[in-house]
């Protein structure tokens, strides 16, 4: 590259919207079972909510603050927001077309109906009336707006009904609002004949009985609306004497952040819209007229209806680890490094590791980082049990894990009560690394066992996130893990680590040096190849370095689920870079980094994506895969990802994604294949070391 080279970048936010479009495509895919399509639509809606609460809110804050720096794609905050609003309007339209024109007709074919009030039978009307008075009416709180009662603060993401009223003495219409209770089911099963299932939405029941909330007034008009607010926590860590208390206060504020989006029903009158606009601050992220039910996240609960397993993916129960043949986890790790591939291999191996450590008389200490854990976490229970058994247990609970802060505060307090030493994260940094250290006395010496992973210690998400992990008793890694925990719990400075690299200290430099090494090797004729699998690629300096590697002749293949700011296939810049995205029934979450290294291949796993926040503002971990069998297995995994023909999309220089050209290729759904691979390996019918060799291009080629 020369200094005059124009470096192309995609805008981060628009790239994320294209990711959500790929999720929406799964809701549109007729090959997916019907209820799975409903779930994908719910995920699309939930993703968009978070996008507004965090990303759009952040841009809005920049605009308010007068921030005028362009992003790597050359866009000012206001320009980004304008493009986002335009694209989201298209996405919302496509989302509701999918719901109304594809999914609702498909449900009808299965004798499942969402009924409008005007279509209820007499029997159903009687049922709905009883249901309203017995279940709904006691929970409702109608709020009228007048001189003595100002417009109420509308809760973030809550579904509400706006009403225009007129009483006998009213000259002008009166505005009122009713929140649709989130504590009640959003959809209600109606009595009906035959084997049909008919449902009505909660807001429709409230609407047809609205006169009971405003007796003596005429209902002139009513419509549902929903406000999305800025939910990004603003925490003054330096000024907070108690981080725990500061975050608890910030969580409460999240419900009332600045409004960034207004959604309202298609038939909402301009009078109602004007009233909401007059009484609310500006909706900088846009206003959206919705042709259907607001907040389609309710479809996730609809997905959980019993009796429809035939309309879902086949239930694949996670299998035992193919490398742990010994019930004693310590003996198994001592025999060789263990690699885990979730969710195909059960997360129970990790839970059992902590449980055995809690009960083992020879275990002296357990140290662990926790970022996101489940609501009824067996990991938490095992750690508490270990403390009760007299072991020294140290747990770093990251209180700043976005949208999991409240849950993590509860767990932190529970662990403290059990006798664990709890660390509430580091000032100015999120601790995102996944690290577990068990210190054990064996034959008058100390031995350290370490688990390092790409995913959270969460037994629930481990069932539908793809992640990888290594369990080892390598003494150098054990010593490094101890040094990392000493840094997290005290004032120890990381001087030098033998095997591990952490952010924000040296992880960025490590990956940069590995890329530069591939550049040198390619230029000297030894061939160069880089394969990265991650969730997001945003960091500008890393992208520039990958462009430089491409120009040097390094063959680069990137498997990036979500955001990608790198532009592939760009003339004279990224012609040697291919970017793929896989969106399927499982959430791709593992981070794997492969370097050809002139034939002496180096493979790493990490908790980090290549984003500024991961490399500079979080504690992250990069760890090597050194066992030869595990290296062969990872190479096989990478090759299979690159061979997927079912759920892969290819990114082009235009920013558009296209499906893989399947002509001449064997059909392959890589996520299904991995499950069958593990199952066949357990049945001893598969060659574990069978891999397809990489053939990196040399610079001359």
Automatic annotation (TrEMBL):
<dbReference type="InterPro" id="IPR041108">
    <property type="entry name" value="PP_kinase_C_1"/>
</dbReference>
<dbReference type="InterPro" id="IPR036830">
    <property type="entry name" value="PP_kinase_middle_dom_sf"/>
</dbReference>
<keyword id="KW-0067">ATP-binding</keyword>
<comment type="function">
    <text>Catalyzes the reversible transfer of the terminal phosphate of ATP to form a long-chain polyphosphate (polyP).</text>
</comment>
<dbReference type="InterPro" id="IPR025200">
    <property type="entry name" value="PPK_C_dom2"/>
</dbReference>
<dbReference type="Pfam" id="PF13090">
    <property type="entry name" value="PP_kinase_C"/>
</dbReference>
<feature type="domain" description="Polyphosphate kinase C-terminal">
    <location>
        <begin position="328"/>
        <end position="492"/>
    </location>
</feature>
<dbReference type="GO" id="GO:0046872">
    <property type="term" value="F:metal ion binding"/>
</dbReference>
<dbReference type="GO" id="GO:0008976">
    <property type="term" value="F:polyphosphate kinase activity"/>
</dbReference>
<keyword id="KW-0460">Magnesium</keyword>
<dbReference type="InterPro" id="IPR036832">
    <property type="entry name" value="PPK_N_dom_sf"/>
</dbReference>
<dbReference type="GO" id="GO:0005524">
    <property type="term" value="F:ATP binding"/>
</dbReference>
<comment type="similarity">
    <text>Belongs to the polyphosphate kinase 1 (PPK1) family.</text>
</comment>
<feature type="binding site">
    <location>
        <position position="372"/>
    </location>
    <ligand>
        <name>Mg(2+)</name>
    </ligand>
</feature>
<feature type="active site" description="Phosphohistidine intermediate">
    <location>
        <position position="432"/>
    </location>
</feature>
<keyword id="KW-0808">Transferase</keyword>
<keyword id="KW-0547">Nucleotide-binding</keyword>
<feature type="domain" description="Polyphosphate kinase N-terminal">
    <location>
        <begin position="9"/>
        <end position="114"/>
    </location>
</feature>
<feature type="domain" description="Polyphosphate kinase C-terminal">
    <location>
        <begin position="501"/>
        <end position="671"/>
    </location>
</feature>
<feature type="binding site">
    <location>
        <position position="465"/>
    </location>
    <ligand>
        <name>ATP</name>
    </ligand>
</feature>
<dbReference type="Pfam" id="PF17941">
    <property type="entry name" value="PP_kinase_C_1"/>
</dbReference>
<dbReference type="GO" id="GO:0009358">
    <property type="term" value="C:polyphosphate kinase complex"/>
</dbReference>
<dbReference type="InterPro" id="IPR025198">
    <property type="entry name" value="PPK_N_dom"/>
</dbReference>
<keyword id="KW-0597">Phosphoprotein</keyword>
<keyword id="KW-0418">Kinase</keyword>
<feature type="binding site">
    <location>
        <position position="561"/>
    </location>
    <ligand>
        <name>ATP</name>
    </ligand>
</feature>
<keyword id="KW-0479">Metal-binding</keyword>
<dbReference type="InterPro" id="IPR003414">
    <property type="entry name" value="PP_kinase"/>
</dbReference>
<feature type="binding site">
    <location>
        <position position="402"/>
    </location>
    <ligand>
        <name>Mg(2+)</name>
    </ligand>
</feature>
<feature type="domain" description="Polyphosphate kinase middle">
    <location>
        <begin position="123"/>
        <end position="302"/>
    </location>
</feature>
<feature type="binding site">
    <location>
        <position position="47"/>
    </location>
    <ligand>
        <name>ATP</name>
    </ligand>
</feature>
<protein>
    <recommendedName>
        <fullName>Polyphosphate kinase</fullName>
        <ecNumber>2.7.4.1</ecNumber>
    </recommendedName>
</protein>
<feature type="binding site">
    <location>
        <position position="589"/>
    </location>
    <ligand>
        <name>ATP</name>
    </ligand>
</feature>
<dbReference type="GO" id="GO:0006799">
    <property type="term" value="P:polyphosphate biosynthetic process"/>
</dbReference>
<dbReference type="Pfam" id="PF13089">
    <property type="entry name" value="PP_kinase_N"/>
</dbReference>
<dbReference type="Pfam" id="PF02503">
    <property type="entry name" value="PP_kinase"/>
</dbReference>
<dbReference type="InterPro" id="IPR024953">
    <property type="entry name" value="PP_kinase_middle"/>
</dbReference>
């Amino acid at each position: 590259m020369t200094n005059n080279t124009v470096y192309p970048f995609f805008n981060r936010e628009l790239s994320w919207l294209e990711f959500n479009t790929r999720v929406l495509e799964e809701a549109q895919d007729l090959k997916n079972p019907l209820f799975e399509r409903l779930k994908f639509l719910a995920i699309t809606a939930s993703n968009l909510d978070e996008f507004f609460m965090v990303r759009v809110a952040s841009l809005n804050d920049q605009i308010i603050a007068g921030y005028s720096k362009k992003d790597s794609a050359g866009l000012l905050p206001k320009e980004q927001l304008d493009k986002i609003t335009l694209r989201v309007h298209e996405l919302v339209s496509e989302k509701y077309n999918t719901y109304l024109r594809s999914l609702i007709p498909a449900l009808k074919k299965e004798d499942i109906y969402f009924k409008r009030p005007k279509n209820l039978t007499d029997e159903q009307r009687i049922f709905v009336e009883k249901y309203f008075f017995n279940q709904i009416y006691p929970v409702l709180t109608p709020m009228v707006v007048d001189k003595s009662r100002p417009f109420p603060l509308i809760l973030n993401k809550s579904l509400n009904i706006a009403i225009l009223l007129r009483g006998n003495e009213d000259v002008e219409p009166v505005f009122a609002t009713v929140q649709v209770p989130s504590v009640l089911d959003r959809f209600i099963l109606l009595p009906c004949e035959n084997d049909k299932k008919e449902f009505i939405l909660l807001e429709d029941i409230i609407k047809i009985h609205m006169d009971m909330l405003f007796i003596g007034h005429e209902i002139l008009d009513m419509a549902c609306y929903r406000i999305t607010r800025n939910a990004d926590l603003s925490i003054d860590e330096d000024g907070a004497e108690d981080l725990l208390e500061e975050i608890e206060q910030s969580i409460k504020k999240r419900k009332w952040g600045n409004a960034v989006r207004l959604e309202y029903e298609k038939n909402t009158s301009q009078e109602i819209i004007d009233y909401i606009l007059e009484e609310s601050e500006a909706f900088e992220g846009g206003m959206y007229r919705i042709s259907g039910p607001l907040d389609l996240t309710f479809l996730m609960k609809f997905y959980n209806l019993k009796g429809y397993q035939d309309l879902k993916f086949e239930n694949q129960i996670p299998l035992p680890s193919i490398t742990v043949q010994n019930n004693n986890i310590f003996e198994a790790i001592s025999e060789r490094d263990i690699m885990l591939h979730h969710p195909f291999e059960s997360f129970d191996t990790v839970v059992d590791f902590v449980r055995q450590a809690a009960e083992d008389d020879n275990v002296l200490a357990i140290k662990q980082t926790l970022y996101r854990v489940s609501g009824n976490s067996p990991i938490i229970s095992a750690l508490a049990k270990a403390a009760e058994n007299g072991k020294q247990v140290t747990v770093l609970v990251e209180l700043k894990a976005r949208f999991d802060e409240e849950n993590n505060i509860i767990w932190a307090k529970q662990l403290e009560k059990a006798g664990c030493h709890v660390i509430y994260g580091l000032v100015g940094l999120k601790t995102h690394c996944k690290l577990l250290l068990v210190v054990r006395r064996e034959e008058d010496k100390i031995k350290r066992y370490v688990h390092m992973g790409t995913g959270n210690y969460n037994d629930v998400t481990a069932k539908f996130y793809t992640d990888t992990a290594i369990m080892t008793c390598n003494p150098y890694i054990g010593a490094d893990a101890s040094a990392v925990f000493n840094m997290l719990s005290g004032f120890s400075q990381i001087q030098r680590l033998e095997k591990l690299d952490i952010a924000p200290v040296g992880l960025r430099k490590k990956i940069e040096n590995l890329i530069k090494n591939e550049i040198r090797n390619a230029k000297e004729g030894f061939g160069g190849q880089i394969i990265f699998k991650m969730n997001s690629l945003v960091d500008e300096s890393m992208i520039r370095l990958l462009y430089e590697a491409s120009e040097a002749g390094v063959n680069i293949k990137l498997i990036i689920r979500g955001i990608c700011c790198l532009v592939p296939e760009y003339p004279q810049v990224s012609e040697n870079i291919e970017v793929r995205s896989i969106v399927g029934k499982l959430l791709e979450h593992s981070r794997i980094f492969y370097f050809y290294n002139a034939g002496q291949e180096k493979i790493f796993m990490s908790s980090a994506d290549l984003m500024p926040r991961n490399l500079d503002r979080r504690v992250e971990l990069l760890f090597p895969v050194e066992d030869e069998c595990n290296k062969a297995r990872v190479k096989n995994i990478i090759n299979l990802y690159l061979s997927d023909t079912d759920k892969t999309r290819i990114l082009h220089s235009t920013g558009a994604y296209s499906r893989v050209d399947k002509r001449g290729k064997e059909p392959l759904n890589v996520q299904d294949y991995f499950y069958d691979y593990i199952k066949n390996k357990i049945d001893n019918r598969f060659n574990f070391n069978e891999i397809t060799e990489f053939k990196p291009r040399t610079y001359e080629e």
